[in-house]
DNA sequence: CCATTAATTTCAT
DNA sequence: ATGAAATTAATGG
């Protein structure tokens, strides 16, 4: 299965439609919950997390995105405010294209619309898979849902050598588990031969 | 070396 | 089994 990176539009094309690049510091917010969606965002450098906080202040991470990936584009097609926050995990460079220019661009280049459909579909697919695994009470099942998804992004055939490049805390926040539970479940999964733990790396 | 951040363990529930 | 708090390890300046 081919990876569909959501979404990677040629940078010079973005610039020709009036996009600009901005640099963000670590922990800097790109947009916040309840903001209006005014731009298409695409990462050139760095990492961005999309998150929420529940009523007890516990963080839930929806996704973590990196180089050449876009985010928040679904909101451009709706008259809705963002339901999530976008925060840089490290110093990042992000290109942003104003909404109206974005629409001009996809009108002029319809193949981008098709690609966008593929991207948004991929996201929906991910959400469905995650919902399935998050519905389980079993921590290992939840972990496996996330790990399977992350590995599907990487299509080389590689038995237990795909490095999960997230911290235990991030994994916890992506699966709605506590960090201790993640650590314990990962150890149990290793014991059962489902994955390998080497140094502190998770190989799946 | 100190400060910060992450991973793991301990301990109480 | 779970989570808060304490401890240990690693990373960065």
UniProtKB/TrEMBL annotation:
Domain (HTH crp-type) spans 137-204
Keywords, alphabetical? DNA-binding, Kinase, Transcription, Transcription regulation, Transferase
Q: Show the GO cellular component annotation of the record.
A: cytosol
Which stretches are annotated as coiled coil? none
InterPro entries registered for this protein in UniProt:
cNMP-bd_dom, cNMP-bd_dom_sf, Env_Response_Regulators, HTH_CRP, RmlC-like_jellyroll, WH_DNA-bd_sf
Keyword DNA-binding carried by entry: yes
In this protein, which residues make up the domain named Cyclic nucleotide-binding?
Answer: 20-106
* GO-annotated molecular function: DNA binding; DNA-binding transcription factor activity; kinase activity
Name of this chain's protein: cAMP-binding domain of CRP or a regulatory subunit of cAMP-dependent protein kinases
């Amino acid at each position: 299965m081919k990876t569909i990176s959501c979404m990677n539009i040629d940078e010079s094309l973005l610039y020709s439609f009036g996009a600009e690049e901005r640099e963000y510091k670590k922990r800097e917010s790109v947009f916040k919950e309840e903001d209006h969606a005014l731009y298409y965002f695409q990462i050139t450098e760095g990492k961005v997390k999309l998150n929420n906080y529940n009523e007890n202040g516990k963080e839930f991470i929806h996704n973590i995105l990196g180089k050449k990936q876009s985010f928040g584009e679904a909101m451009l097609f709706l008259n809705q405010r963002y339901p999530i926050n976008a925060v840089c995990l490290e110093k990042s460079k992000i290109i942003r294209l104003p909404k109206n220019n974005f629409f001009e661009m996809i009108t002029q280049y319809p193949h981008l619309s098709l690609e966008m459909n593929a991207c948004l579909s991929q996201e929906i697919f991910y959400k469905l898979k995650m919902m399935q695994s998050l519905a389980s009470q079993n921590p290992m099942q939840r972990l496996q849902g996330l790990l399977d998804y992350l590995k599907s992004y990487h299509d080389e055939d590689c038995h237990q050598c795909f490095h999960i490049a997230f911290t235990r805390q991030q994994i916890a926040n992506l699966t709605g588990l506590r960090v201790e539970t993640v650590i314990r479940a990962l150890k149990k999964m290793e014991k059962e031969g489902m994955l390998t733990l080497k140094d502190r790396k998770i190989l799946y």
